Structures are given as structure tokens and as C-alpha cells.
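Archive maintenance. Older records in this collection stored only the sequence; we are now back-filling the structure field for every entry so that each record is complete. The fields below show one back-filled record exactly as it appears after the update. Entries are processed alphabetically, and LysE family transporter is next in the queue.

ARCHIVE ENTRY
Title: LysE family transporter
Organism field: Shinella zoogloeoides
Length field: 204
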Amino acid sequence: MTLEFLITSLVVILLPGTGVIYTLALGISGGLRAGLLAAFGCTLGIVPHILASVAGLAAVLHASALAFEVLRYIGVAYLLFIAWSLLKESNALDLGPEQAPAEKALRIVRKGIFTNIFNPKLSLFFLAFLPQFIPANAPDATARMLLLGGVFMALTFLVFAIYAGLAAGLRRQVLSRPKIIVWTQRSFAAALGVMGLRLALADR
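Back-filled structure field:
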């Protein structure tokens, strides 16, 4: 593992994306615990992409236009569904006490997982990203890629946890002002909708 890998990973993780938006939304609406659950779910959603890259499935995805398009439009539909849910539910950003029941916690984690699973760009990213930090003809290339993938996931959770903490710190100020709740809700919905459209229009 190199310093270049850590810096590059942090830059990529810090860039606002669907996972960041989802974590911020849950941090504001449900407090620190909900934000951390969202961060955990988004981090788990990276696992299939890392395994796909290690197994070479990302190369197949890259070569198959049909496979890429199918996964991409599933992702688009899911992001637009979340955006619509935020607009539709008047209390989407008012989940009540920070200690959410177990079933709600599982739902938060599940949505976080699906948010990242249905993003084919992640598979292509890891396909191009991880091999750059593996020595040519390394006998333990698979183990090294899994290790780097694990480090990337750990950094992802750490950064997202910080986002969740910052969002939770704003919870009281946001939820005490009804107009801010409405506009925050609409802003998150718009951001997710725009990201969904960008994914739909993105080139491979």
C-alpha cells in the first residue's frame, strides 16, 4: 500500500456522490445513528464491485454494452425512486427520535447498499483503479487487490461517518425550522434526481 493510493482514494471518496447525499439526508433526518447506518450501508454496497473487479467481471461489464446499460438503468430507476420518495413523503426528513427501531435501521442500511450496488461506474472504477497499485506479475495479486479494496472501504466508512456527524450536528437547527425542512428535503431529492439523470446520460 502506498501514500499515492491513500491520497487518491480519499480524493475519490470525498467527491460528493449519491452515497454522500444519502448519508447527509439520513444524518439530518435521523441523527448520528441513522447517518452512521447509511454510511455503513453505502460502504457495504462497494463489496460487489470490488469482488467483480477482482474476479474480472468488471471487464465483462465493460465489454458488454447490454450488461452495462441494463445495470445503469436499474441504477437510474432506483435513484429516481429515492428522489420521488423524498418529495412524496411530507415527513421524509422527520424520522422522529434518533434511536430508530431495528426494522427502520435495516431499511436504512438496505437502501444504502442498493444505492451503491446499482452504480456500474463503480465496477469500472475499481477495474481501472486497483490494478494500478499492484506490481506487474505479482504472485499474490488477488490478495493485494482484496486488501486495497478493504482499505478503500474503511476509508469510505470513515469519511462518510464524518459527513454523518456534521449532518447530525445540523439536525436541531434544520428540524426546528419547517421551511428549512421542506427545502432541505427538496434539495436532496433534486440532487439525487440530477445524479440519476447524469448516470442515464453518461458515456461508458
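Update note: Residues 19-77+97-176 form one domain. Residues 141-169 form the longest helix (29 residues).
Entry marked complete.
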